[in-house]
Each structure stands twice: as structure tokens, then as C-alpha cells.
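Propose amino acids for all 351 sites.
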């Protein structure tokens, strides 16, 4: 796996790049327990749907590693691990990759041989991570080909929101994977990144990783997105997703829906790039996607600096849902769903 990655696992320790500190400081934290991993997800040391899933998989492994006595049968093992898995599941509600990854870890069969069981769990967490990286590279290339097919020839400007990059995945990124592949093909004129209030994943993370990789990037305030789209500066919008319902509705960072509406009004295609681990086939509609509500201080302050009346009530949803009818196509590692709706999503699933 080449390039920037937000996580590494070695010597029974999960190493996470502390994304709360970027771009001012590059500090890696070393986590040795499931509880430390759960806290790191909650506190957004690591964030982004696929990266949360990979980290939770290693967190589960660390939970099993910490068992002081080895259970004598599968049922006792599951009973012992249930609270640990529940702790990880309770960290963040919206990104389905978290639940998907824990489910995959729980599918690893128990073995009477502790060493054998641990080796299988470690292998599963490694596979979840390496598969995510491979998926990102595939969807990046597929997405770049799709944009090239859909848009007039020549280099294009692309707008993105939040950070759906290497930092949000095992590496390479989903939306930023498409942007990376466009750049490699000489098709990228400019990546525009919304700053993404209130946590500024665009300003702090997207800009950092694209700039570091020598990819042209311009930061814009969220409030400028409509203007950019309306004045013809943007050829396409590409964003990631935290959960995609069976009808193609896609949850992503708060503000994404406004960008999709502005793109529709300007006649600019709006693409979602996400791996299959982000699809929630159990939910018939995006209205059912749980939306995380975050601490009001994220809005009352910019960084540590208060910017409003102390204690003023705040409503701070972390995500919103873009209805499928605003999405030109969903780009996955296995192909593209054009103009997604329930029937086209089901046909894609059955392919
Ligand atoms: O709150 P965050 O930073 O975890 O939100 C991240 C996003 O909304 C990303 O766009 C999404 O997870 C896709 S990451 C490939």
C-alpha cells in the first residue's frame, strides 16, 4: 500500500495518525487496547467511514488479545466478546463501515487454539484494510474514466466536500481517489476543497494530503460552493459517503446536500464514490440513516477560540443525506450505478 495512510498495525499495537492535529502537527498515537481504539474513533483521532471500519477491526482484535482466560467453547467466546463489540459499535452511528467491519470480525470462527484464533482475526483485520486500499484504487480509476467519458475533453476542475481521501480510508481515498486518478491521467485542472465547517476536514485534511502529493488544490469556504458552481468554474462534484441506502440515497458530511442542490441547479454532475462496505442494503431509504449529533462547542468555537454568545443553543448534525435523484452516478470498486434508484441499485447488487 503506497502513499499516505492514517493507520498501521504492528507489534500488537494500532498506530493512528492523529487527525485532530493535522496539518499543524504529524503525530502518531500507539494504541494497545480496544477501549483506546474506541476512544480514538469517538474523538476523531481517526475518522472517515472506511478508516473507522479498519480501525474498529484492529480494535476488536486487541479486545480478543486481552482476554485473560481462553473460553472453552464458541458460545462462551461470543458472550465474553459481546460487550467489547458493543463498545466499538457505540462509537459513531452514521458510517456503516464500522458495523460492517465488526460483523466481519465476528464471522471469524472461534478455535480452541488461542494462537490460531488470534492469527485468523489478525488476518481478517489485515484483509479488511488491504481490500479497502485496493477498492479505493479501483474506484479511483473507474471514476476518472467515467468523468472523462461524461465530460468534454480537456483538464477539468472538480469540487469536493469534507475529506474522502487517503486519510479517510486505508489509503488513496474514494472521492480523492478519483481526483488522484484524474491527476495521474493529466485530466485534473484543479481540485476545489470546501473547508467543511465545523471540523474543517476540507481545510485541514483534504488540502494537506493533496498538497503533499503535488495535486493542485484550492481551498474555498463552504459558503462559496454555490457561487463556484453557478459561475461555471466546476465541471463535476465528487464526494464520499458514510452510508448508502438501497435506493441510492447517500449520507455524507453535513453540507453535502447543499452542494448537491447547487450542482443540480447549475447542471453540474454530482458523483458519489464509495466502496461496497458503505452500502446498507437493509435500509430502503436514506431517511432511515442515523445521523450523528455532535457537541455544540464545535460550532461555538473555531478551534479553541469562542466565536459566539457563551452557551447559546446549537444544533450540530454531523451528516446529511443527499437524495438519489441528485446523484449522477455512484462509483464503486465493482462498477458504476448510473442515476441510482431502487431498481438500478438492486440490479447492480445482483450483478
Ligand atoms: O465526521 P467524519 O470526518 O468521519 O466524516 C467523514 C465523511 O463524511 C467522509 O466524506 C466519508 O466518511 C467518506 S470517507 C471515504
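Proposal:
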Amino acid at each position: 500500500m503506497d502513499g499516505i495512510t492514517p493507520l498501521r498495525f504492528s507489534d500488537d499495537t494500532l498506530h493512528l495518525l492523529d487527525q485532530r492535529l493535522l496539518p499543524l502537527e504529524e503525530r502518531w498515537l500507539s494504541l494497545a487496547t480496544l477501549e483506546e481504539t474506541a476512544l480514538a474513533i469517538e474523538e476523531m483521532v481517526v475518522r472517515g467511514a472506511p478508516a473507522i471500519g479498519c480501525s474498529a477491526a484492529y480494535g476488536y482484535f486487541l479486545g480478543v488479545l486481552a482476554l485473560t482466560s481462553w473460553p472453552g467453547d464458541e458460545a462462551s467466546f461470543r458472550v465474553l466478546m459481546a460487550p467489547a463489540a458493543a463498545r466499538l459499535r457505540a462509537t459513531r452511528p452514521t458510517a456503516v463501515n464500522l458495523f460492517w467491519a465488526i460483523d466481519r470480525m465476528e464471522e471469524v470462527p472461534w478455535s480452541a487454539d488461542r494462537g490460531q484464533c488470534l492469527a485468523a482475526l489478525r488476518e481478517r483485520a489485515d484483509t479488511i484494510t488491504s481490500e479497502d486500499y485496493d477498492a479505493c484504487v479501483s474506484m479511483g480509476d473507474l471514476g476518472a474514466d467515467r468523468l472523462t467519458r461524461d465530460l468534454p475533453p480537456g483538464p477539468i476542475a472538480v469540487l469536493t466536500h469534507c475529506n474522502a481521501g487517503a486519510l479517510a480510508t486505508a489509503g488513496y481515498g474514494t472521492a480523492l481517489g478519483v481526483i488522484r486518478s484524474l491527476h495521474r491521467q493529466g485530466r485534473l485542472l484543479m481540485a476545489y476543497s470546501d473547508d467543511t465547517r465545523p471540523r474543517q476536514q476540507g481545510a485541514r485534511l483534504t488540502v494537506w494530503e493533496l498538497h503533499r502529493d503535488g495535486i493542485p488544490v484550492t481551498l474555498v469556504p463552504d459558503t462559496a460552493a454555490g457561487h463556484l458552481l453557478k459561475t461555471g468554474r466546476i465541471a463535476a462534484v465528487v464526494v464520499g459517503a458514510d452510508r448508502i441506502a438501497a435506493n441510492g440515497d447517500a449520507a455524507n458530511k453535513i453540507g453535502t446536500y447543499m452542494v448537491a442542490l447547487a450542482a443540480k441547479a447549475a447542471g453540474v454532475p454530482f458523483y458519489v464514490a464509495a466502496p461496497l462496505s458503505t452500502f446498507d442494503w437493509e435500509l430502503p431509504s436514506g431517511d432511515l440513516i442515523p445521523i450523528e449529533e455532535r457537541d455544540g462547542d464545535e460550532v461555538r468555537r473555531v478551534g479553541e477560540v469562542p466565536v459566539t454568545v457563551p452557551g447559546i443553543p446549537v444544533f450540530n448534525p454531523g451528516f446529511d443525506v443527499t437524495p438519489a435523484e441528485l446523484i449522477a452516478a455512484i462509483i464503486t470498486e465493482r462498477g458504476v450505478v448510473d442515476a441510482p434508484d431502487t431498481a438500478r441499485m438492486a440490479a447492480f447488487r445482483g450483478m
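Residues 47-50, 95, 162, 164, 168-169, 174, 201, 240-242, 252-253, 318 surround MRU (CB under 6 Å). Residues 7-132 form a domain with the Four Helix Bundle (Hemerythrin (Met), subunit A) fold (CATH 1.20.120.420).
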